[in-house]
Amino acid sequence: MRTPHISDSQMELLAARLAAVGVGRRDFLKVAGGLATLGAVGFNARPVSAAPALAPGEKLAREQHVRLGGGGWWQNDPSSHDYNKDLYCSGVPILFAGLMKFNADFQPIPYVASKITSNADGSVWTFALRKDSKWSDGAPCAARDFEWSWKRQMDPASKNPYSSYFYDIKGAEAFNKGKAPDASQVGVVAKDDWTLEVTLEGPRGYFPVLSAYLAAYPAHRASVEKHGDKWTEAANIVCNGPFVLETWEHNKVMVLRKNKHFFGAKDITLEKATIPIVPVQSGALPYENNELDISPLQPGDLRRLRDDPRTKAQVFRYPFPGTWYLIPQVTKPPFDNVKVRRAVGHAIDRENVVKVADGFAIPAHSMIPTGFPGAIDDKKIRDIQRFDPKAAMAMLKGTPYEGGRNWPRITLTMREEGLGSKPLAEAVQAVLLEHLNMKTELEVLEQRVFRAGLWKNDYQFVWIRWFMDYPDPHNEYFDTFYGKKTEGRRQAWVNDAFDKELEAGRDTRDAKKRMVNYAKAEEIMQTDGGYIPVAWVARWCAAKPAVRGLEKNKLGETVVEGNIYVDMLPHVYMIEKA
Amino acid sequence: MIHAETRPRSSSLWRDGVRRLRRNRLAVAGGVVVVLLCLIAIFADFLAPLPYTKTNFSRLNEPPSRAYPLGTDQLGRDLLSRMIYGARVSMLVGLGAQVIVVLIGVPIGALSGYIGGRTDLFLTRFVDVMYAFPRLLFVILVMSMLGAGLTNIFIAIGLTGWVGIARQTRAQVLAIKEKEFVDGARALGAGFGRVLGRHVMPNALTPIIVAVTFGIPEAIFTEAALSFIGVGINPPTPSWGQMVGEGQQYIRSYWHLCVFPSIAIAVTMLSFVFFGDGVRDALDPKLK
Questions:
Q1: Is A345 on the interface with B (CB under 8 A)?
Q2: What is the Cα–Cα distance from B181 to B228, expressed in whole angstroms?
Q3: pLDDT at A141
Q4: What SS3 state is found at B72?
């Protein structure tokens, strides 16, 4: 197939598309991340998962049953499993299969579609569906099912909260906004049983990415027409994914069973999955009581499980790109003085600060975490704000705050948030007091209140994080720090030289040159004290020894269920306990 | 003079009261703890082994040891020192808020009861309206308007806590102003201020004292609750409620983080309640 060139303007369109429907920024960045490598992916059918790899002496458990949840997963009862109508239903994604799916590296790969082709400019996409694609009642899940589902997705009658997701499709916007009488002009057509042709508003090289996301899942027409909003109840649901919903006791538990009719069923070893609805406050208790086999961990539990010889080997870190940093507001004293900003940068004892996060943070020296595209490992940049209390104090020479005296009242503002944010902020306060004698008061604000003040650049000193949306420096720098942004700017700091590098990075296709631009931008920003990197986010999960088959990404990190990657269960299998 | 006549009687009531209070062992125990807590709060700077901001990043979340009798918190700060400074916040809030409560509640209650008529009607209805608000919610509302901080906690608790005392004062004044000695004072030409200040109020004092004794632990608890949910005292200033709030999510890994401050809150509350109970029993004329 041809992989049409994806221009920057298209990239912006994709960002706008996802932003318009309110897809979380983090989701978006990961979705779009798949784009970078799209061309390299072979768009041909492949096994749904690899065969279990057993060590000598190990054998598969007789009962292939996994229990997952807790620690923030499914902490509330899903409102439905109808992703076709409500992306935010908090349901179980694995009940459905889209035309494409995301692999452990967040790249889109073929799934229900076996072959994807486009015309020369990428404005018409043709999906050839697998002929063994079936619904869980055994009937074929064919091209017309996707046509119907996608049109339902954008039908104004569906009152879908993210209906603008498919506005790239010809006529979708008009239909959704009620400007077209019906869906007949919408560019989704089942050419025959197994061919879906999608005509777009223009060239959109990223369309395969859209078709891989949860929002592009199909829905079962007969069930929807018969049961209405109740069609995803266990008694009613007909789905096309690797698993079916056997029971759903609301607010209690969901039980999944392997879908016999799923085209990849023979590749899947797991027979059953149980997902209890567990409030996040229960922490790791259900896991420790052996009521769960896979569970993400909260900060309060990680250390204990890691220190315990019985659970030590079960705990692992999984990728979650995010950066904690400080914004010294350049419009407010004492941070209107660049020397003060630089002094703060040198006073942050990062190695020690991250200790309080108990494993949920690692020291950061720049915006992009190690291992992600655009990560900078340059001593020169590392040194700009390296921890050095003497240099910090020296920076204050000649300012009114020389010797750490005369500080005005300083308030450090943060949003209310879990996952160890507050201890980190308190540790930052502690090191500033220790090394600069800078007394700060920590103000924790409710999310919405915080954001309102943030956009107005009202706060003197901000403790904040950025969760990467898509693994490209454009997201980490442009979307956060670009000075000409008219809205959603977190800081008053602006720097023309910095902006120029970002523009160059945006308008260049040469990957190497771009990285040079972004490294330069990082250097400018740090030298000018535009922000102060403190820590990168880390997340943790625990899985019992009997759980096998969790996928790893290119960096060798184990990847677990998220919003983009939802393909964990088909890969999991259980071995007999020793 | 009536003045000369009432004084010995009232002082014997006090002496009786103290005697009865002394005989009540629980009350004495409570009183001793309260005095101790006040001393700890006053001399925190001398008593605390370490400053409350002193961190030790190589000894985080340690259980109690010889170096750190109550262990360390998430930032490696000495829990004992933080609790000692926390006592200061608690005592300040307990007493400070009661000062505001008394300053607002007693005059309103006294005027309302003494003047009567429309003034009484108006003030009483106002008190009723204030009374109708759920206390803690109202405090949270005020706090979110004023922002976190010690002074604002005084104000928030003071603004919401005076209604009870105002009602009690009014009831007392209503009863006492009909007494003969008050008529006598008026007949001798005492003015409004003198009658209310010298004759009525001293006799209405007992229930107010009791109300204040119970009001202190309530204020302490309100502060703890506010700090627990994060709208009370701003870090790094330690407060028991805040320490419990931060420690409770780690309870299964680091039990000491929230157990010790919880014990401190519980002991303080109990002491004040025992002491308050003793004071009430001691001053209740019906028990004489």
A1: no
A2: 50
A3: 95
A4: strand
Chain B interface, mutation test: which of A422, A428, A437, most B Cβ atoms within 10 Å? A422
Strands (E), chain B: none
Strand A361-363 versus strand A315-318 pairing type: unpaired
Count CB-CB contacts under 10 A for residue A51. 11
**Residues in chain A closer than 8 A to B148 (CB atoms):** 443-444
CB-CB: which of B53, B57, B250 is closest to A355? B57
User: Looking at residue A470, what is its pLDDT?
Assistant: 61
Number of Cβ within 10 Å of residue B51's Cβ equals 15
Bridge-based pairing state of the strands A272-276 and A65-67: parallel
Q: Are B266 and B19 in contact (CB under 8 A)?
A: no
pTM value > 0.95: no
**Please, are residues B130 and B160 in contact by the beta-carbon 8 Å criterion?**
yes
CA-based nearest distance A76→chain B, Å: 19
Which of these, A336, A33, A19, lies nearest to A164 by C-alpha position?
A19
* pLDDT at residue A18 in the model: 60
Which strand (E) or helix (H) includes residue A195? strand A195-199
Chains A, B: CB pairs < 8 Å = 70
Which one-letter amino acid corresponds to residue B20? R
Structure tokens at A528: 């000018």
The Cα A33–Cα A11 span in angstroms is 11
What is the dihedral sign for C-alpha A228, A232, A235, A239?
A: positive
Check whether A558 has a pLDDT greater than 70.
Answer: yes
Per-residue pLDDT reduced to its tens digit, A409-431 = 999 999 987 667 888 999 999 99
Range in A266-280, A429-443, B82-96, B222-236 with the lowest mean pLDDT: B222-236
